[in-house]
Amino acid sequence: MSTVIRGGTVVTHDLSYRADVLIEDGTITQIGEGLTGDTELDATGCYVMPGGIDPHTHLEMPFMGTHSTDDFDSGTRAALAGGTTMVVDFALPQPGQGLLDALKTWDNKSARAHCDYSFHMAVTWWGEQVFDEMQEVVAKHGINSFKHFMAYKGSLMVQDDEMFASFQRLAELGAIALVHAENGDVVADLSAKLLREGTTGPEGHAYSRPPQVEGEAANRAIMIADMAGVPLYVVHVSCEQSHEAIRRARQAGMRVWGEPLIQHLTLDEGEYFHADWDHAARRVMSPPFRSKAHQASLWAGLQSGSLSVVATDHCAFTTAQKRTGVGDFTKIPNGTGGLEDRLPMLWTHGVVPGRLTPNEFVAVTSTNIAKILNCYPRKGAIRVGSDADILVLDPAREKTIAATDQQSAIDYNVFEGQQVSGLPRYVLSRGRVMVDDGTLKPAEGHGRFVARAPRGEVSRALTSWKETTRPRPVDRAGIPASGV
Ligand SMILES: NC(=O)NCCC(=O)O
Ligand SMILES: [Zn+2]
Ligand SMILES: [Zn+2]
């Protein structure tokens, strides 16, 4: 049973060219002119791209006394409806819980996935058990990326000594470190002060997390990672201060990547001052939305290559869940949705006005993260031998974003009313047509776990570099190294 995508323009991170794509048994087997297959999909006028990879989702995440509402069913339906064919979620051990134990929970949840997925492991506490289990998580479970929260004091936050120990362990194992970079101590203090002084509404969330808390933490994580000799990926970069730290580190040769979110690129801090409490609370996430000047910095980072990936941090709570925080903004569950909207929003605000080329669009939505997470070219590529995870993007197809039409299970959409173009005509997941002429054809349980080996190219290079430049004792004739 073969499928051919005919008449489109193949767009990869480095090339655009007219070609048909032949798919057999879930894999791309030929790319060229005049191909035929059992099923033919007409891509005339469309771009044939690697499906999106969203490396930052929290599906059914236990957080702030509740669970995020989108699970692996609704979350991956939303992904596919918007052209994303792989998500990477976070396995999150409770304090004191083993990593392997937490992984079982995520394995169970993900059985419902409609598209392929992988996991990052979160390091939420530190001890011998975590140190020991990291080895098995990497070697047996195909997870090569570990997340550290520098915020959420009293729940997920880890201290610098724990982070340094974890980063050193990751360097040994050939894995990479991820950080949520915000100074959790300062956030906790500022929050308490704001509440004491009478700021209880959602605007307090933004005031309690100024760009400085993010810039300071990003810089600290970068320096700790450099000393530990581990590559670092900074999630949800929202402001110039953390972007500047990443830019500076990259210019100094450090192995650091930055990930802005589609929300921070397109929505600003004005949302928190909306007269309607629900409107503002629905947009509470960490870090908060920023000013237009910060947005300009993020776009420039994508254009210049100092920022590498656009994600969503999809962590969706209903209005009823958000209302837990009426009278105290620190109790509003942190998180917003975006899985279905990431690609159309980035196309509309990135490619259409000329901020990004179509090739750059592919790079930041798919190929770069596949390389960083060491699953390229199986994912993130239109190449012979790659999984047939393909988005046929129709630049002429348009819609107005509305919660009433979305796959997400929540009752609103932070992009409500936005007019977007660049919608999927077809989306294929390992060759199976999941969006057919714009209509989602869900297949619960179709998704498979994508194992990712350690010691990717950047990890190997950094290990060699750290060995080349490591401190060495000076050999002084006649003077013993240890005391007499
Ligand atoms: N970002 C956010 O507000 N919620 C999800 C958890 C996290 O990534 O910090
Ligand atoms: Zn975070
Ligand atoms: Zn997150």
UniProtKB/TrEMBL annotation:
Cofactor(s) listed: Zn(2+)
GO biological process, one term: nucleobase-containing small molecule metabolic process
Descriptive protein name: D-hydantoinase/dihydropyrimidinase
UniProt subunit comment: Homotetramer.
GO cellular component terms listed in the entry, alphabetical order: cytosol
PTM (free text): Carbamylation allows a single lysine to coordinate two divalent metal cations.
Keyword Acetylation: no
Enzyme kind, highest EC tier: hydrolase
Ranges where the Amidohydrolase-related domain occurs: 47-432
Modified residues (N6-carboxylysine): K147
Taxonomic lineage: Bacteria, Pseudomonadati, Pseudomonadota, Alphaproteobacteria, Rhodobacterales
Keywords, in A-Z order: Hydrolase, Metal-binding, Zinc
